[in-house]
Write a structure and sequence with these properties.
Blueprint: E1 3-6, H1 11-20, E2 27-30, H2 47-61, E3 68-79, E4 85-86, H3 100-110, E5 120-130, E6 136-147, E7 163-165, E8 170-171, H4 177-183, H5 185-201
Parallel strand pairs: 1-2, 1-3
Antiparallel strand pairs: 3-4, 3-5, 5-6, 6-7, 7-8
Length: 202
């Protein structure tokens, strides 16, 4: 395994990925950095299905290349009080061009007057890998928390400023990169995937 292509253009996500997978001794590229442009229709019904759709789409663009692994994730926020919205539609919630400031405030507004014990939520991350031989595998992890009453923190992205964890009594956007990678859904799913990549590479 000489190269890992991650099916994303999100630089915040790429920083987390590179940090966690840094000891794999492989070049880690985003789709853009790998020169891949392809329209991906995420029409799966679960995080796992969407992650695999993305990974297979990018893998088809690099088919024939040896020692290349394509990874893709599908992640999102589930708010129990809102029937697990926005769920798999987290990135497209209220429209793809809507800022997360607006999305986050909308969720807070919809939970006005709701006590903490009913504000439970989780981040979910499924990561799919497609190998050069066509085989694939998937990992899934979560982080449990609750929706706060106001956004806080500048270290995260997306819904991080409104997602609070009791262990640190702060939002995930207020955590250091090291603490977030240890706790986060994506961090845990990436570490689980790293174990699979190492076993596959032996």
């Amino acid at each position: 395994m000489k190269k890992i292509i991650f099916a994303t253009g999100n630089q915040g996500k790429m920083r987390e990925i590179r940090s966690i997978l840094s000891d794999l001794q492989a070049e880690i590229l985003s789709m853009e950095e790998a020169g891949i442009t392809t329209d991906i229709i995420e029409n799966g019904r679960t995080f796992e299905e969407n992650a695999l759709i993305k990974a297979r789409a990018v893998a088809s663009a690099v088919s024939g290349e040896e020692d290349v692994v394509v990874l893709a994730d599908d992640s999102g926020l589930e708010v129990d009080y809102l029937d697990k919205e926005p769920g798999i539609y987290s990135a497209r919630y209220m429209g793809e061009d809507t800022s997360y400031e607006v999305k986050n405030q909308n969720i807070i507004d919809r939970l006005e007057g709701v006590p903490k014990e009913q504000r439970t939520a989780r981040f979910v991350c499924a990561i799919a890998a497609v190998f050069a031989d066509g085989e694939s595998c998937i990992t899934r992890e979560t982080i449990e928390g609750y929706i706060g009453w106001k956004p806080a923190g500048k270290n995260g992205f997306g819904y991080d400023p409104i997602f609070y964890v009791d262990e640190y009594n702060c939002s995930t956007a207020e955590l250091s990169a090291e603490a977030k990678n240890k706790l986060s859904h994506r961090g845990k799913a990436l570490r689980a995937m790293k174990e699979k990549l190492v076993c596959k590479d032996k």
